[in-house]
Amino acid sequence: MRISELRISGSGLIVDGVDLEVSSGETVGLVGESGSGKSLTARAATGLLPKGLRATGSVTLDGRELLGARERVWRSVRGTRVSLLMQDPFAMLNPLRTAGAHVAESLRGRRDRAEVLRRLAEVGIDDPDVAGRHPFQLSGGMRQRVALAAALAADPGLLIADEPTTALDATTQHEILMLIRGLQRARGMGVLLITHDLRVAFELCDRVAVMYAGRIVEQGPPAEMAKAPAHPYTAGLLAAVPTVERRLPRLIGIRGSVPSAAQVSATCAFAARCDQATSECAHARPPLRELRPERLTACLHEVRPRTRVEEGGQERRQVTGDEVLRVTGLRRTYGSHVALGGVSLHVNRGESVGVVGGSGSGKTTLARCVLGLVRPDSGTIELADPVRPRHQLVQCVFQDPSTSLNPALTVGATLTEAAAQGPAKDRLTPAELLELVGLPVAYARRRPAGLSGGERQRVAIARALSVRPALLICDEPVASLDVSVQAHVLELLREVGTSMLFITHDLAVVRQMADRLVVLARGEVVESGDTAEVLDAPAHAYTRRLVASVPAAP
Amino acid sequence: MRAILVAVLGLAAVAAVAGSWLAPYDPAAQDLALGAAEPSAAHWLGTDDLGRDVLSRLLAGAGSALMWPVLVAACTTVLSTTLGLLAGYRLGWVDALMMRTVDLAIAMPGMLVLIVVVGVIGGGYGWAVLAMALLFTPGDIRVIRSLTLAQRELAYAEAARTLGLPASRIMFRHLLPNLAPTVVASSLLSFVAALVALAGLSFLGIGLPAGTPDWGLMVQENRGLLDLNPWASIAPAALITVVACAATLLGDRAFESLSKGGLR
């Protein structure tokens, strides 16, 4: 498949001139943050653009022009020549049909049970009973395998995988990626992998294209790109990716936020956020020039190597003896499902304790119990002070920045209200709180809809801190944020320096944030100890699996 | 489009407030010698069988035709929003009790109950209006409750609970503004339903005493004059239709623009 000069516009320009080629037998990664236009590029390449968007340029498959083709032509191409694997395996499968029916539907020629089972075995489902199950009876990883089997049932020459593993656990994510690689090699097909995660793209792809504000800014083999990025944006992203191997003294993000393609159509897309930008960068749009064969960049300059801040030893924070949280024997069941099976842990003052585990490990239920949103079946929760009300002792930063602020209230109103719940002495004003989290004071008048994801999360942190809690619970605070923004939010949380219970599925993040680590699996603590010790030398089999599944840091 | 809808409802509101004052003739003044006459320069919409000016009666009747439905809509909205929020946020026995009552209320044949109530109590129009508000409330409670259930699980509502805010504040300051699109749309729909239902009652001769200038009543009283002056019954019927359509469409639009703007 060859995509050239692809432009997509709706009410404004969204994708601005993308050129990309995928040959059979090769895996190409298209990497970009949210809003970069990567998913729309994939949708245009399969003729599935949402209503109201128009694409110009050219998409050819084996020399045949597809852009602007009739729906009838597309139907003959989709599934059989090009297949699309999407992010959410639950939404992609019809809940009323069995796994086998999904695969059988797309098979050509033989449609018998033996063939369906063979196809399911190909994606690593050996249990023949699975064919008769419905999507809701399967785990996320199994659903994605079934979806993959269905996508490959008609033997397409090209598989477009749009964030195929984003919704999955780290361990499952690794398995699915390896599965896609194995299938790609065995079948000799082309794969276009679309992802926001550089680590995933580098692990799997032969060639990686980095997209930014609707255009490709750099392209090349992952090994070279990791060693010597040829575009400042790629360099910035690489620096922002947290590593599981060591604790970085400082987490560096990229300042500012992603512009829309229309705003930067006549300049270098990255100029406004670039440390190396010169006046040339703002005058003309730099072309995608060839450095070497297979190595393209849209930067005019030689990229200065980023000075990685050298490890400044683990700066231990002041940990005093008194506890701000002690949980003993916490149990909570939902029907027959055991969410928490007797969990005990404690957090000292000034200490940051990480809680890691896959989905279903009970880590969110633990947080909700401590916050008082869920009543545990048994066990005790002791906070710093038995007299003061719970809401002044523990506060929470929730995962999803799109719902964590009330859309109807201004930022100022939210913060004022929250601060009024704290102790009456030295009450913090919205202006002070905004300053604390590094936002302009003028933001007090805005509503959440006028803020980016990272800014909303900062406001959420300010709201949690407004009552001066003894303990801050962070429930996946950066899981929904782009890498370049993640670093800023994590750095902010470090600076704040309250005692923290930091819940995450991402070992690289927890390495940066936690002094001590508790590993949860199926509602039980399987391992705990000093973060560095646990991650460098995991003792429990589950922890080892978790550590092994982290994509290698570029 | 939106401007047209607002203009239609605005004109209706002006007529409802200042109708009797704007009317060119006394709506009760009879001209038996003239009888039912077709539209003329003196009487733009003609006269009815007692020689009363149709236009004046329409203007004078706008008040009772529109004010009562507004009252129904206001009562229904306040009741259903409060009770729906309470049921959806409190859950537990409050919710169970309220929802079973709602189930019972919805199982009753509403219009029939209304006719009996008005028939038994007699001309007390206010009672009919109150009964109607009570009849409309259960359906809206269900809608508000289901939306509350969805909103209370969102992170901002959990954050409010984590901050230890009192339940009433969470319900009315945090959840209610996010239900606003539905509340506004459903109050306009209640208005429309009440407008049509009250006109229907008038048409059946239940409620207002005969001879009162009222749109529903005019359709009924003048339907015998279709050959002499068709406007005497068509005009009030058309007004009811136009106002009802305008309010429904405006409700739709308000819902869309409110759920898009600011809130998401």
TrEMBL record, chain A:
Compartments it resides in: Cell membrane
GO cellular component: plasma membrane
Pfam families attached to this UniProt entry: ABC_tran, oligo_HPY
Domain ABC transporter residue range list: 1-238, 325-547
Gene3D superfamilies: P-loop containing nucleotide triphosphate hydrolases (3.40.50.300)
Keyword annotations from UniProtKB, A to Z: ATP-binding, Cell membrane, Membrane, Nucleotide-binding, Transport
GO molecular function: ATP binding; ATP hydrolysis activity
Any single GO BP term: peptide transport
Superkingdom classification of source: Bacteria
Source taxonomy: Bacteria, Bacillati, Actinomycetota, Actinomycetes, Streptosporangiales
Membrane association type: Peripheral membrane protein
SMART domains: AAA (SM00382)
Primary localization: membrane
Protein's name in the database: Peptide/nickel transport system ATP-binding protein
Stated family: Belongs to the ABC transporter superfamily.
Keyword Nucleotide-binding: yes
PROSITE patterns: ABC_TRANSPORTER_1, ABC_TRANSPORTER_2
Automatic annotation (TrEMBL), chain B:
A GO biological-process term: transmembrane transport
InterPro entries: BP-dependent_transpt_permease, MetI-like, MetI-like_sf
TM annotation in the entry: 66-89, 101-121, 179-208, 228-250
GO cellular component: plasma membrane
Record-linked CDD domains: TM_PBP2 (cd06261)
Location of the ABC transmembrane type-1 domain: 66-251
UniProt key word Chloroplast: no
Pfam families given in the database record: BPD_transp_1
Record flagged with keyword Transcription regulation: no
Compartments where located: Cell membrane
Keywords from the named record: Cell membrane, Membrane, Transmembrane, Transmembrane helix, Transport
Protein's membrane topology: Multi-pass membrane protein
Family listed: Belongs to the binding-protein-dependent transport system permease family.
Name listed for the protein in its UniProt record: ABC-type dipeptide/oligopeptide/nickel transport system permease subunit
High-level lineage: Bacteria, Bacillati, Actinomycetota, Actinomycetes, Streptosporangiales
